[in-house]
Amino acid sequence: MSERIKVAVLGAAGRMGSTVVRAVQGADDLELVATLDAGDDLSAAAGADVAIDFTVPAVTESNVHALIDAGVHVVVGTTGWDDESKARVRDHLADRPGVGVLIAPNFALGAVFAMAFAARAAAWFESVEVIELHHPDKVDAPSGTAQHTAAAIAAARTAAGVGPSPDATTQELDGARGADVDGVRVHAVRLRGLVAHEEILLGNAGEQLTIRHDSFDRVSFMPGVLLGVRQVGSHPGLTVGLEHLLDLG
Ligand SMILES: NC(=O)C1=CN([C@@H]2O[C@H](COP(=O)(O)OP(=O)(O)OC[C@H]3O[C@@H](n4cnc5c(N)ncnc54)[C@H](O)[C@@H]3O)[C@@H](O)[C@H]2O)C=CC1
Ligand SMILES: O=C(O)C1=N[C@H](C(=O)O)C[C@H](O)C1
User: Fold this and answer.
1) 97 C-alpha vs ligand 2 centroid, how far in Å?
2) Which terminal Cβ of the chain has fewer Cβ within 10 Å, N or C?
3) C-alpha distances in angstroms, 71 versus 96, 187, 188?
């Protein structure tokens, strides 16, 4: 058997981190060498080939920079990344050739396909809006997935020369029309009993297309996380979105 990939998990006590720990332990080609949570010394991850970060938006970027300095590839599921924080990681990686960082707002394969299908369809519909629905313990809104979806939709519409979705609203209670992400309206629902769900609504005169993805259990993210762990070392530099490992990018 070829050598196993040594893996460290950051945020290991969390909802995602604990699920990732079990997935890594169950994979024959991976070896769990460190589990870290808040307050632990990050140097414990330095012996890993790949670190997986499912922590909190406030710390994920500094974790990634420290891991790049240690020469460890990183698979990041934590949300909260903006263009500036991604640019800082890209710049840092330019000084560390060979190190790969994958940031993916959603590792569920169905969610990645939903985003890709929505971006393709969005050029052909007059109206499009995104609704994300999550458990009420989530700290950020709108979800990273919804922001990534809206950005991909906006890019596809711009490339196709499609204008903004029509909207006659002139009077509104603050927030009633959701957040504006690159010109696409995004609405966030928080409800006990939910895990992670997204709907993309596309409308034309006389028809509607709804693309919906549901993660009912956090195991849904594990095939994508393990794919990222196995492939991040062959993708030096920064990769944003699992779609690039699925030939959908
Ligand atoms: N990309 C994807 O497919 C998915 C991404 N997420 C994202 O993953 C992140 C984590 O989500 P959950 O597991 O639900 O949150 P959680 O709150 O259950 O877990 C976060 C964990 O990180 C730990 N932590 C905080 N600071 C830390 C530090 N400096 N070093 C190490 N650990 C630290 C916390 O103590 C906690 O155990 C969120 O940003 C969420 O949006 C969640 C599900 C899927
Ligand atoms: O916090 C969560 O739970 C999730 N976060 C990610 C996001 O913000 O998109 C991915 C998934 O939706 C679950």
Assistant:
1) 30
2) N
3) 8, 39, 37
